[in-house]
């Protein structure tokens, strides 16, 4: 039978069961209202939980962007860059050479007021490692003496690769006895590589970076190249972040999966530091290797090299001790083609002029020559312009007795756009496992004085045309040239 009671009444009847119609109806209505209010509050709390981190993130990004702009606009230091060289005893060039690394290091020591940080591979500034009385070790001995004196009055920190059992420790112990703070970094345990970098930071405003080790031979018996940048706190502060990373690694057994913000940088290949260098506008940044040691914002050294090659418009000139498209020190043979492929690509696709000046000495691996001949053979097409020359440092009978000497140890590249001054040899291990660093300078604006790019190009062309360089061909091998 169809009910004549309206729906609204049926609801009222259901609600009236229990304590009476009016009281129960009011009770349930209050319950519904409270439930709705509670639901709304929970939704608002959830939204707040989601929105606050987003707001903080947005605020952080905004502050980082503001900081980026602020730092670029306020980097007004009167930065000055100087190329420095070590020319082995007995070598003579027809054209000029730059200030010696020995003199540059003495100047930096004399200029130190409060602090000196040195990142280094090893220390052998005296004859103790060779057990000889080689007179040309005198310059290294002078540097060690001056550093000892400085350590007693300024804060000297040294980050050095943890020496193997047979490596000499005399220099490090000497400096420690005078007050230097030394930390040994076990890169073999951390990355399976070594701490191969070579740079100084003085008073957080002057820097040196280049190929020279803390070795007396690097001052008188090995050909080296580096750069000193004076009165440039912006750049020194950024290089200091790389040093602080090495300093931290002494206290850990693992490389951080994500480096804290204090190690990060705003300057890289995409957003270089804008500053005045020798009175000329310049774009500058520092790269580092391996990638695991690069905090946020830092360009890995390999990516820096590939970017410099890719952006060349006319030429790429490379001067390095070793050039091997392999993992040089891995137990199993591994081909590593990153740089080699990029050189071939720009030569073929864009007709870039490529020159490689590679060193040869007693420690040169014979396998390097087939790879170099392969590159040089591309010149036979008459369409690709790739040339390779081998650079040798001559030795007399006495000089041949000096171990690990008489070699061109340079590690730089120059293009029509950029000067790249690094600390690594060019084989895969140095970019995958080993700690290195590099200074990258784009300073191509016209000026009264020559740019560092033009100066570095002149160094390369001087060495390329010298009597110490020899064209490689299909018959060239280590025994014939070195």
As for the CATH topology, it is Endonuclease, Chain A
Query: What is the CATH C level class, in words?
Result: Alpha Beta
CATH superfamily: Endonuclease Chain A
Find the structural class using helix and strand composition. alpha/beta
Plain-language structure description:
The chain is α/β, with parallel strands linked by helices. It has one domain: Endonuclease, Chain A, CATH 3.30.870.10. Helix content is 37%, strand content 22%. It is built from 14 helices and 21 strands. The strands form 3 sheets. The protein has a 17-stranded mixed sheet that branches. Strand 7 and strand 8 form a beta hairpin. Helix 1 crosses helix 2 and helix 4 runs parallel beside helix 5. It is globular. The termini are far apart. The N terminus is likely disordered. Its main location: membrane. It is an enzyme of class 3 (hydrolase). Keywords: Exonuclease, Hydrolase, Membrane, Nuclease, Repeat, Transmembrane, Transmembrane helix.
Quick overview of this protein structure:
The protein has 482 residues and is an alpha/beta fold. It contains 14 helices and 21 strands.
List the helices and strands and how they pair.
Elements: H1 7-16, H2 21-74, E1 78-86, E2 99-100, H3 101-111, E3 115-120, E4 123-124, H4 138-151, E5 155-161, H5 170-177, E6 181-185, H6 187-191, E7 199-202, E8 206-210, E9 214-215, H7 217-220, E10 224-230, H8 233-249, E11 273-277, E12 280-289, H9 301-310, E13 315-320, E14 323-324, H10 338-349, E15 353-359, H11 368-377, E16 386-391, E17 411-415, E18 419-422, E19 426-427, H12 428-432, E20 436-442, H13 452-464, E21 469-471, H14 478-481
